[in-house]
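dumping this here so i dont lose it
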């Protein structure tokens, strides 16, 4: 399938699912009271999607790869915040595992996309 818009990118689609999982988690009444953590988790999850979209609209594959790197960094931030949420008893282990696993999946998709872009760049 040809990618014609950022919404066609599989890593963006999966990042959207992750973002919704994070927003669902942050509806937890205890976590809602931890404004800083809640805000950071939501921003990081949203940033993953935004960086993929912004990179897609860039001028080059090199620029796109840089935005994908930013998206991966935001995923690491989400994963780190998940540990804080777990340690503070804002979530159960099974919920942690599900969201952490989705973040890992998105990270893997982004890494694969970066490899693809680097290879296509070398062929030019």
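and the seq i came up w/
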């Amino acid at each position: 399938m040809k990618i014609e818009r950022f919404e066609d990118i599989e890593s963006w689609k999966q990042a959207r699912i992750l973002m919704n999982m994070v927003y669902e988690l942050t509806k937890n009444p205890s976590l809602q009271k931890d404004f800083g953590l809640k805000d950071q988790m939501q921003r990081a999850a949203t940033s993953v999607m935004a960086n993929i979209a912004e990179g897609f609209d860039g001028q080059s594959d090199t620029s796109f790869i840089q935005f994908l790197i930013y998206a991966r960094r935001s995923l690491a931030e989400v994963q780190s915040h998940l540990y804080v949420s777990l340690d503070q008893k804002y979530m159960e282990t099974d919920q942690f595992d599900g969201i952490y696993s989705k973040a890992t999946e998105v990270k893997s998709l982004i890494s694969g996309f970066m490899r693809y872009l680097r290879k296509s760049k070398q062929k030019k």
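Residues 93-123 form the longest helix (31 residues).
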